[in-house]
Specification:
With 376 residues, this protein is an alpha/beta fold. The chain has 15 helices and five strands. It has a five-stranded mixed beta sheet with strand order 1-2-3-4-5, with helices on both faces.
Length: 376
Amino acid sequence: MNIKINKKDDIILKILHYFITEEDYRPVIINGLDNEIWLENMENDLKLIRINNNYIHNNEQLKVDTFRAKNIMKSIKKSTLSFNMNMLNLLLDTGDNVSIIDNKNIETIKVEKISDFKKNKVVSEFFPKVKDADLDDKMDPVEFFKLTEDMNEKTIKNEKKLAKIFSKKKPTVTYALIAINIVMFLICNLYNPSLLELFANNRLLVKSGDFYRLFTCMFLHADIVHLLFNMYALYILGSQVETYYGKLKFSLIYFVSGLLGSLFSCVFMSSNAFSIGASGAIFGLLGSIGYFTYYYRATLRGLLHSQVSYVIIINLLYGFLIPGIDISAHIGGLIGGLLLSMAIGIGDKGRKTDEINGIIVLILMFIFMIYMLFGR
């Protein structure tokens, strides 16, 4: 049986195979487009790849096509919370009189044969591995089906990774923390109010040796409104962070962020002030969610417009509008969550240099805050 392969289909498949299997791009689903394929990889300098198989017969049509591509790119940029976005625009069917015009953030290339892609200077600059890729103009039906199978295997493998990360897990550590906070609230407010002063954070008492206060203050709350605000935030954010990072990393993020928040509170609070609440640790979860969302922003489009956005707004308003709120603990916890998330990494998305930098900066931050507290 003879199988005929269209030349453009062969080129498209080989380019797709390269980007999906070698450069970790994945398809973007965009409704209403014909004969166009979009790929994205938020880790690359060229975050978007567009393969356009529509015929462009003159420069005016090219301008219209480029304008439309820019609008789609702006939409993806907005939905992925990206500050900057560049695109490689591959045109597979253009008239002889079409001239490529330079466009900001868009590198456009005419591809009539696979060597036009492989030997292009822009492609070589951004994708050094392309020089060793098995890309030639030979059309082989056996190779055609093998490339399709390779891409399917790569896609399935990536989907399994994402499914493992985002699969619903019971947030047992989050529930345990909520339970401890509620129990401590009941004990302190109904049976022994003096415990609030005994375990609350205070600069002079910590400097005199009551280091435990940096930790115990995270489980105390002044009133029912304070408790409800924090426990609602912990329920929403804790469930997310525990699912994404796992129980051990979630626990580290929560407690280390809380401790850094307590240190910030000690350094910046007045000498006779007492500070209590889980807000420092909770803002650490916010920082952690922010860091995770940045790396998985292509997958988590709309996350910050869901429940999490309401938690952020509520906590910020609560912190700035209600008198007596310890803003310094919030800031310290937020910094702690960001830095610790860098330090512990986020699986195959994280970079080793980010983890090393996160560890170093986090340690320096703790040393600096301890010096500010005890060295003055």
